[in-house]
Every structure is written in C-alpha cells, then in structure tokens.
Amino acid sequence: MDVAIGLAGLAPLEDYRGSVDRNGRKLSGTIVAVADQLAAAAGILMRKAAGCPVVLLRRIRLAPAEGSARCLLRDREQDLFR
User: Fold this and answer.
1) Is residue 29 classed as helix, strand or coil in its secondary structure?
2) Reported confidence tier of residue 78, pLDDT bands at 50, 70, 90
3) 11 in Cβ contact with 32 (< 8 Å)
4) pLDDT at residue 81 above 90?
5) Among candidate residues 1, 77, 62, the one with its CA nearest the CA of residue 36
6) 6, 7, 8, 64: most buried by Cβ count inside 10 Å?
7) Contacts of 11 (CB under 8 A, 6+ apart)
8) Does the predicted model carry a pTM greater than 0.85?
9) Alpha-carbon span 55 to 45, nearest angstrom
10) Nearest-angstrom CA–CA distance, 5 and 72
11) Residue 45, CB-side half-sphere exposure with 13 Å CA sphere
12) pLDDT at 53
C-alpha cells in the first residue's frame, strides 16, 4: 500500500463536508487524503517489480497550503485500521 510519509507545500487533506456533489446532494463525511492519493498514483508508476524507488510528480495543480503528514493520522477512536 502506498501512503504519504511526508509532504511540503500542500494541504494533506481536502475537506468537502458541507459542499454538494454533482447531483446537488450535500456531502456530510467526505474528507479526501490528497497526499495519500498522490502517493498511490506514484505507486502505479513505480512498477514494483522493476525496483523503481522514486517517482517525481510534477505540475500537480493544487492550491499552495501549509500542512503536515501528521494530519493524515486519525484519532484512535476514528481509525478503522489500527
């Protein structure tokens, strides 16, 4: 599983709660882990069997923001995988 272990210059989470989807329904529990999604995309490009240890993603169009990978950690009560 590919996950972000660090980040710089972007918000690790994008919170859609309170906005509406394309059908006009209000979103109440949608928080996207943008940093993990980028890590997963890089994982596809790495081709595990080829032994590629690093992928550089460029021109990702996200608003610059401050953040920390620590934001990706959930409280023990909310973590389904701990």
Assistant:
1) coil
2) confident
3) no
4) no
5) 1
6) 7
7) 34, 62, 63, 65, 66, 67, 71
8) no
9) 7
10) 9
11) 10
12) 83
d(CA 58, CA 34): 15
7-59 residue pLDDT tens: 778 888 888 999 999 999 999 888 888 888 888 888 888 887 888 888 888 88
End-to-end CA distance of the chain: 15
User: Mind spelling out the 3-state secondary structure of 20-78?
Assistant: ECCCCCECCCCEEEHHHHHHHHHHHHHCHHHCCCCCCCCCCCCCCCCCCHHHHCCCCCC
Q: Which two tokens stand for residue 6?
A: 């660090």
Range in 1-5, 39-43, 44-48, 78-82 with the lowest mean pLDDT? 1-5
What values do phi and psi take at 77, rounded to 5?
-70, -25
Distance CA 36, CA 74 (A): 14
Q: How far is Cα 42 from Cα 53, in angstroms, rounded to an integer?
A: 10
Please enumerate in sequence order all residues whose Cβ is within 8 A of that of 23, keeping only pairs 6 or more positions apart, or say none. none
